[in-house]
Amino acid sequence: MSDARRIQLQPAYVLHHRPYRDTSRILELFTRDHGRVSVFARGARGGTKAGASLLPILQPFNRLLVSWSGKGEAGQLTGAEFDGAMTPLPADRLVHGFYLNELLLKLFARHDSHPDVFALYAQTMEQLKREDAIRPLRLFEKRLLDAIGYGLALERDAHDGSELDPGATYHYRIEQGPVRVEGVDENAVVYSGAMLLSLAREELSDATVCAEARRLLRAALDRCLDGRELRTRQVMLALRKGK
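^ that's the sequence the OP posted. Answer follows.
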């Protein structure tokens, strides 16, 4: 096997894992230099002493250094260790972490390297461990759209190029940008100029601004998802309704 097929100590996160045969797992990893990759972790469900020792390591939200080898779509895990100190994600933010993971699984093909998105994900994960989830989630969504080439135009009217008025109301045409509302349409989905400008400046400390930005960012991400549903959205909606 050539050296090119042996990857050593690659920074990575586990996005998802599922059982494989009796004692193994298939891991979906998001790596810094190789993008999404699938690897077989043999014995990782307790089949061997070495495999069992990896159980607490090979979990979502842990920053890891992972090694694997092999050809084709899926490699063979050869090693994994924590990349620095391991700080768990608080229980009330686990669903938000799984939301980020599901976005990456749905939006990125395997072996499509995005080191900028890896850095963004790592930064957001650390923020989720330290602070309320809302602002980090909105910033992640905005910056993710920028990184994949679907960034939002947020500072000028798409119709005439004028600067947005914080006191005005705008439609948002996903393919073009904001267009000032003329007249009243109670059924139209509209956004305040103040929110659009705040989102452009990434000033998201206000809960009302974050809530309005969530609607726009969701619409933009839906275009990228092309009809694919996110299960974690349904879970978060149920949690909000239960509060």
